[in-house]
Design brief:
The protein is α/β, with parallel strands linked by helices. The chain folds into five domains: about 180 residues, Response regulator (Rossmann fold, 3-Layer(aba) Sandwich), CATH 3.40.50; about 130 residues, 3-Layer(aba) Sandwich (Rossmann fold), CATH 3.40.50; about 60 residues, PAS domain (Beta-Lactamase, 2-Layer Sandwich); about 180 residues, 3-Layer(aba) Sandwich (Rossmann fold); about 130 residues, Helicase, Ruva Protein, domain 3, CATH 1.10.8. About 45% of the residues lie in helices and about 20% in strands. Strands 2-1-3-4-5 form a five-stranded parallel β-sheet, sandwiched between helices. The longest helix has 22 residues. About 45% of the residues are buried. It binds adenosine-5'-triphosphate. Adenosine-5'-triphosphate binds next to helix 17, helix 23 and helix 25. This is Sigma-54 factor interaction domain-containing protein. InterPro entries: AAA+_ATPase, AAA_lid_NorR, Homeodomain-like_sf, HTH_Fis, P-loop_NTPase, Peripla_BP_I, Sigma_54_int, Sigma_54_int_dom_ATP-bd_1. It comes from Siminovitchia fordii.
Length: about 750
């Protein structure tokens, strides 16, 4: 029986520190199997911590006849591969602890689920160290999902998550996070950092004077392999939990380690994810041999209920062959990089991947609350038993300044009564507060920042960051949907900074052909390429000397150029294309994007996390126009003034009914769309010598009134309708984009997102 097995591991990339060890463990299990049966051909593919690459490599191997896969360390990679497993009916041995919330019929999960690892760590540190917890993780599925469960679990035990921080996948800069830890003085840190972030965090932790004696770090991830990567002195005293530790002194483990070290020709540390890889591979291969079949269903059926003696005790595969029941230990790292076992469950803990659901119940509740929050006059806050905010509507956040996860004391709840009419409803495990501003409460005064004016509390907070940015030379990242005014804010920052007498140069990376971006930014010398100007040309970096460079649509920057841009930002020097001279540049960068860069870093691999980090020294998010209806009237007034200057006398105002419609419309194209609507209406009303009325609005906006009652709950539907309508009424995508007041690239993205056919 000859059989191909696909090994999907990141031999390079952010999590390669850990996955190389898993790859060796899988190879070892296959080599032991082949010593007796010589039937397995292992085909390894480097997935480089990249979900898209994982799916592509898995599909190529599946087409080549591979039925069994081993690997996919990160949850993002595992989830990306699931559709391939389904399509070709393959089996994945997933040998890594994970966040649970999944029980896929094509996966044999040999790592620990949260109730076998995370809950145990929490019980331990709450008992020994305290209940004030600081969560730090990378920004992707595993840390976020795990932390949702940590919050629920700890709040049920009167613990308090005092901070929850996420850094980009691969981030290695922790100065600011550790300063924050020093300031907030938690009892413990719970870390779900992975890959290169792990050594960077632990090292900086010690270097900045924190120690496990004062605030220990508990992490389900940081094991022997990661401790070796950081240097044992940095890991010593911190904790982890798993079924397996290299230091287990039973004969099965000693024999395993000896054989493994002989195989790998060295004394590399062995960690639980490695042992789980070895074990999973061995169990599946042995089952195949017994059955003389590769059929996924048969293998899983055969494995279901099996017991086996292993280096970490007697394990049992659950009835459907997907998870393991296992004993669990807690280890405290020693100065030699091994773990001292400080707690042992002694008996098996059954896997309960859905023990704490972050989806079903809470999501349904959230959906109900969300919908209610949108239509209700009142602001809504839902508290857990111990007063932690589990949900608050946008209105509630605006009125109170509270955030999800804040804990409200009885006194704070009492104080709300002074400012609001409060209706309080206490049910089992939940406390619901409905707030109505007291009549006569003054509206928030307008805040001005350059050309920007806003009454919106959230936007005012963001503009505080813009003010700080104006007084510093730090790089700034402006986030916000298309047309929200990112360029206007960038301009205001420049004009209010010390650089106001220098140039402000804008580059829209999304609009420049990819092969010309480098020469646009960095310039070139004569003869560098066909069509190059005589005498060469300077690029935007040099043109912005002593001023500000505004990089719009930074999310569209190709990966290879991101490396060059990062270097220029770090060294403050550039080299013109075709030149060898380095030139110093003294500029401040403001970048903007309407894309979700952390998500693209984690799942899409289209943006470098180090560049993101460099740009994101100060960041501010401009709320979409639909979230600040209180600003619409003021914006219209300004626009009418400007239009009067350009076109001469015209209507002074929008009539009441029309204004109401403008305030309620969801504005997918934000201020740009509002501007287009007002300009058109101004000209039409002017020709009729009257105020602006609904008749002066385009059909998609007028039509909004008739459909309003149904639409209130679904802004996406409104947006989709507006786009479909604009496409029907125009001859090209470009024309439709103009009509909607959004960029063509944004319209293409939305067409794809909504599945509209053109
Ligand atoms: N505060 C404001 N007052 C009046 N007009 C504004 C304001 N902010 C933005 N605008 C107008 O809205 C339009 C879009 O603004 P801007 O180009 O700054 O948005 P953006 O977020 O950078 O858009 P994109 O993401 O598409 O590049 C412009 O016509 C601008 O003049």
């Amino acid at each position: 029986m000859q059989m191909k097995v696909g090994l999907l591991f990141s031999l390079t990339g952010i999590t390669s520190i850990t996955e190389r060890g898993q790859y060796e463990a899988a190879s070892f299990a296959i080599s032991e199997f082949n010593e007796q049966h010589a039937e397995i051909e292992a085909i390894v593919r480097d997935i480089s911590s990249d979900p898209r690459k994982s799916a592509e490599e898995a599909e190529a191997l599946a087409l080549d006849g591979v039925k069994i896969f081993i690997g996919c360390y990160t949850s993002a990679c595992r989830k990306a591969v699931l559709p391939v497993l389904e399509k070709y009916d393959c089996l994945l041995v997933y040998p890594t602890l994970y966040e649970g919330q999944e029980d896929h019929p094509n996966v044999f999960y040999t790592g620990e689920v949260p109730n076998q690892q995370v809950h145990i760590l929490i019980d331990y540190f709450m008992h020994h160290y305290g209940k004030r917890i600081y969560l730090i993780g990378n920004d992707y599925i595993y840390p976020r999902e795990t932390n949702e469960q940590v919050k629920t679990y700890t709040s049920g035990k009167n613990g308090e998550v005092i901070e929850e921080r996420y850094v980009p996948f691969g981030n290695q800069e922790f100065h600011e996070v550790i300063q924050d830890i020093i300031l907030k003085k938690p009892d413990v840190i719970f870390s779900t950092l992975v890959g290169k972030s792990v050594p960077a965090f632990y090292r900086k932790y010690k270097q900045m004077g924190l120690s496990p004696e004062s605030v220990p770090i508990f992490s389900p991830i940081t094991k022997e392999t990661e401790i070796e990567a950081m240097g044992a002195e940095f890991g010593a005293g911190h904790y982890s939990s798993a079924s397996y530790f290299q230091s287990l002194s039973n004969p099965l483990n000693q024999s395993f380690i000896q054989r493994f070290h002989r195989f790998s020709e060295g004394k590399k540390p062995v960690s639980s994810v490695m042992y789980n890889t070895y074990l999973g591979t061995k169990i599946v291969l042995d089952s195949m041999l017994k059955l003389r079949a590769f059929d996924r269903e048969k293998i899983m059926g055969y494995m279901g209920g099996k017991r086996m003696d292993t280096a970490c005790g007697t394990l049992r595969v659950d009835a459907n062959g997907r998870h393991l029941s296992r004993p669990v230990k807690i280890g405290k790292a020693l100065p030699d990089g091994q773990f001292d076992i400080v707690w042992d469950s002694d008996k098996n803990i059954n896997p309960e991947p859905f023990k704490i659901s972050t989806r079903k119940a809470s999501r349904v509740n959230e959906i109900v609350l969300e919908a209610w929050g949108q239509i209700s006059e009142e602001a809504i806050i839902a508290l857990s038993e111990n007063g932690t905010i589990q949900y608050l509507s946008r209105k509630a956040a605006e009125l109170t300044g509270f955030r999800k996860g804040n804990r409200l004391t009885k006194k704070m709840i009492g104080q709300l009564n002074d400012a609001f009419q409060v209706i309080s409803h206490e049910a089992k495990h939940k406390h619901l507060l409905l707030l109505k501003p007291r009549i006569g409460r003054k509206s928030i005064p307008v805040m001005k920042f350059g050309r920007v004016r806003t009454r919106n509390e959230q936007y005012q907070l963001e503009l505080e960051t813009a003010r700080i940015a104006a007084q510093s030379t730090a790089n700034v990242l402006i986030l916000g949907e298309t047309g929200t005014g990112k360029e206007v804010v960038a301009k205001s920052i420049h004009e209010m900074s010390d650089r106001r007498n220098g140039p402000l140069i804008s580059v829209n990376t999304g609009l420049i052909p990819k092969n010309l971006i480098a020469s646009e930014l960095f310039g070139y010398v004569e003869g560098t390429f066909t069509g190059a100007r005589k005498g060469g040309a300077i690029g935007k970096f040099e043109a912005a000397q002593k001023g500000t460079l505004f990089l719009d649509e930074i999310g569209d920057m190709p990966m290879d150029l991101q490396v060059i841009l990062l270097r220029a930002l770090e060294t403050k020097r550039i080299v013109r294309l075709g030149d060898t001279n380095e030139r110093e540049v003294d500029i401040r960068i403001i970048a903007a994007t309407n894309r979700n860069l952390p998500e693209e870093i984690a799942y899409g691999n289209t943006f470098r996390s180090d560049l993101y980090y460099r740009l994101n020294v100060l960041s501010l998010t401009i709320p979409p126009l639909r979230e600040r209806p209180e600003d619409i009237e003021g914006l219209i007034r300004e626009m009418l003034e400007e239009l009067k200057d350009s076109y001469g006398d015209g209507p002074d105002q929008v009539n009441g009914e029309a204004l109401q419609l403008l305030v309620e419309y969801p504005w997918p194209g934000n201020i740009r769309e509002l501007r287009n609507v007002i300009e058109r209406a101004y000209l039409l009303a002017r020709s009729k010598a009257r105020d602006i009325t609904q008749d002066d609005f385009p059909a998609n906006l007028r039509g909004y009134t008739a459909r309003k009652p149904m639409q209130q709950l679904s802004l996406r539907e409104v947006e989709k309708d507006a786009i479909s309508k604009a496409l029907r009424e125009t001859k090209s995508v470009l024309e439709a984009a103009r009509k909607l007041g959004i960029a063509r690239s944004t319209l293409y993205r939305k067409i794809k997102e909504f599945g509209i056919s053109i």
